[in-house]
Amino acid sequence: MKKICIVGTGYVGLPLAAGFANVGNEVTCLDLDEAKITDLKNGKIPIYEPGLEDLIKRNQKNFNFTTDVQQSIQNNDIIFICVGTPSCTDGSADLQYVLSVAESIGKYMNSCKIVVDKSTVPIGTADLVEETIKKQLLERKVHHNFHVVSNPEFMREGCAVEDVLHPDRVVIGTNDIPTGLTLKRLYEPFVLNGNPIIITDVRSAEMIKYASNCFLATKISFINEMANICEKVGANILEVRKGMAADHRIGDKFLYASIAWGGSCFGKDCNALLNISRNISEESLIVNATIQTNESRPKRFVDTMLSYLLPDQVTIWGTAFKPETDDIRDSASIKVIKLLLEHGIKVNVHDPMALENTKKIFGDNISYCESQYESLLKSDCLLLCTEWSVYRMPNWGLMKKLMFQHYIFDGRNQYDLKTVQEQGFNYISIGREPIKI
Ligand code: UDX
Ligand code: UDX
């Protein structure tokens, strides 16, 4: 059993805390946001993440939710920094929250601590965190040992709990052997299946996170460019994917052509790595192209629709950046809605989990529907932006009755071409031949 403090109860901090509590550790969750902490104390989970609520409830006795910074730092041996690292206007990562946690640690620590950077941060941040803590200790004229570790997260939203409980790998970046061993022990219960715990130097660990996320984003941008070509040469991207994926060197993951990739990580991390590479005169042309390709896609999707019809009203299915989350950060769907509004088109939206967050952006400018079918009433076309499973086998007959015109633009290739043709819809998907009735 270890005493752990997790700073930041967001999409990363909470699943991580739940995982540690579940294997018997005592976990303090610290957040500046009092409303969040009050909710958590009352058993209300501030985000939607499958399995999270259940895991937290089952391990309630191992949790302490608090806004008390001093107590949290003094009472715990290992402190995980899981606060946000948003993008600055130049693309670099904004480290103010990470460094303010470091400052608090230096201000209050009273014994040896292990400080873990879990948030995705630029290479060299662990050194900055160390300097910030040292500065505070110097001001206080006290000496305490501490070690700063880089331990990047690889959690996918929508399956973050699963990714914490059964990680593909754990990366621990430290220059101190005993610290590496302590963290290895902490993670061992999650890799009884033999998946690796990689102990490496701090900077390599920081770089592993950026290289991994940028590579995954590049895979998707690549397949999306192949989809553009398929559309022009009459090939089918799903067949192309199948043929490529059968080669073990390529693999079948992250090769689904789509409206665009989104979420809080890929865009932020690609921009941060690009910024880092430019600052050291080693610009990553590939990461740059990955971003450019992705940024062009929401407009391409809307332009494609406009090349078929000028609708009065459009229905959007899915505003979350991917299924099984209520998170709309950097969601392609949100970008599409903004473009539609610029064209003066009326927008109805449906999403199983993300409507509340969507309302925070668009207020009364669009209509929100609890029922996926109600959202289609009097619409000229449907834009499918997020592949929630409830959209997989729709009631075609009902859709036909409710819609004014029968157009579907599918940003996630959810339907079989023959089926939609038989059902009498115009169907335009990604990287496949359009169906016109
Ligand atoms: C994380 C990581 O921080 C980011 O680096 C990674 O790449 C992706 O996800 P996430 O958990 O998604 O961020 O952020 P968010 O949901 O915004 O949660 C951050 C939490 O930290 C919030 O609850 C916020 O109130 C809290 N916070 C922020 C603090 O407690 N202290 C601060 O100084 C700042
Ligand atoms: C990502 C990383 O996968 C995870 O390891 C990291 O720690 C955090 O960032 P996340 O942002 O939660 O996770 O989602 P992910 O599943 O990677 O999807 C990102 C985006 O890519 C989504 O918008 C998704 O719809 C899109 N995507 C994914 C595709 O368009 N095609 C694919 O084949 C896969």
Number of helices: 16
Biggest pleated sheet: 6 strands, parallel
| Number of beta strands | 14
Specify Rg, calculated over alpha carbons.
24 Å
Small molecules bound: uridine-5'-diphosphate-xylopyranose
* CA-based shape: elongated
- Uncertain runs are none
| Series of secondary-structure elements, N-terminal to C-terminal | EHEHHEHEHEHEHEHEHHHHEHEHEEHEHE
How helix-rich are the residues, as a percent range? Answer: 40-55%
Strand order of the largest sheet: 3-2-1-4-5-6
- Head-to-tail CA distance between termini: 64 Å
Mean pLDDT: 97
Taken as a percent bin, the fraction of beta residues is 5-15%
Classification by helices and strands: alpha/beta
Write the layout of secondary structure elements.
Elements: E1 3-7, H1 13-22, E2 26-30, H2 34-41, H3 52-58, E3 63-66, H4 69-74, E4 78-81, H5 96-108, E5 113-117, H6 125-140, E6 146-150, H7 160-165, E7 170-173, H8 177-187, E8 197-200, H9 202-233, H10 237-245, H11 266-279, H12 285-308, E9 313-317, H13 332-342, E10 346-350, H14 355-362, E11 367-368, E12 381-384, H15 396-402, E13 407-410, H16 417-423, E14 426-428
Parallel strand pairs: 1-2, 1-4, 2-3, 4-5, 5-6, 7-8, 9-10, 9-12, 10-11, 12-13, 13-14
Helix pairs in contact: 1-3, 5-6, 9-11, 9-12, 11-12, 12-13
The structure holds uridine-5'-diphosphate-xylopyranose (2 copies).
Residues 153-157, 213, 216, 220, 254-256, 258, 261-263, 265-266, 321-322 line the site of one uridine-5'-diphosphate-xylopyranose (UDX).
How would you characterize the overall build of this protein?
The protein is α/β, with parallel strands linked by helices and 437 residues long. 43% of the residues lie in helices and 14% in strands. It contains 16 helices and 14 strands. Helix 14 (355-362) links the parallel strand 10 (346-350) and strand 11. Helix 9 packs across helix 11 (266-279). The model has no long low-confidence stretch (mean pLDDT 97). The chain binds uridine-5'-diphosphate-xylopyranose (2 copies). One uridine-5'-diphosphate-xylopyranose binds next to helix 9. One uridine-5'-diphosphate-xylopyranose (UDX) is lined by residues 7-13, 31-33, 36, 82-85, 97, 100-101, 119-120, 264-265.
